[in-house]
Fold:
Amino acid sequence: MQKSSISNDGMVRLEGGPFLMGTESRDGFPADGEGPIRKVTLNPFLMDITPVTNAQFVEFIRATSYRTEAERFGWSYVFEGHIQPALITGRAIGTSWWCKVNGADWQHPEGPHTHIEERANHPVVHVSWNDAMAYCRWAGKRLPTEAEWEYAARGGLEQKLYPWGDELTPDGKHLCNIWQGDFPLHDTGEDGYTGVAPVDAYPPNGYGLYSITGNTWEWCADWFHTRYHATASLTNPSGPPDGKSKVMKGGSYLCHRSYCNRYRVAARTSNAPDSSTTNIGFRCVRDVQDT
Structure:
């Protein structure tokens, strides 16, 4: 696959070094492997200041004619509240609000009757981990490790719940796109959105990174495991050598404290590498020595 010209435009240099990764809070999901807290040391790296947008993904598709896995499969998962019942052709096992929709893909987020034409500055969605890797190869970048992602998301703060501190809405101000109301029945949209928001809809964190929590989940390079990291290397950790699912970080517009407060920076979840939904995107990183 032909690569794009190498550019660091839209990226920020992060100096790395030691930081405290993980949490041991019982208010989170210990079974996900959020702990233990450990001092991790990273090399410097560059990170995209926003998730990859629809406009950026269009450039990739035009240059490579790549077809995403959702396009090849002919369907993807869409949140029930955003589609007409007649479009539902099946449901995900265990989460009834995820509906199989024929024709849903990165260009048609809620199905064939929708389009990204007016969503150029929204994060691209319906991209699998494999699709994200294809984009990275073309762009001369890579996916962040989970450790790099968490270091970046913390924005220089130590052991805070969110990129901006410990209060979800300081002074009543919403700083990320998550669910308010009664999940999954009604999102009041108090944060200004009931679906995916533009990547710069909220202020950046202390490192200048936008949309680092909420809005869309972001793929990481690592295979997911709930215990491996407790004994893994503490210098540039990259996760276990194999597995069945890949790490995702950051939460999404569907996260709500009643069932999934995984918009905390230490929170983690996973999905199969070929999976895609309306709330999964990604951002890229690059090694400093590659610049």
In short: The chain has four helices and 14 strands. The first strand starts at residue 11 and ends at 14. Helices lie at 54-64, 69-73, 129-139, 146-154. Residues 176 and 214 are 5 Å apart (CA to CA).
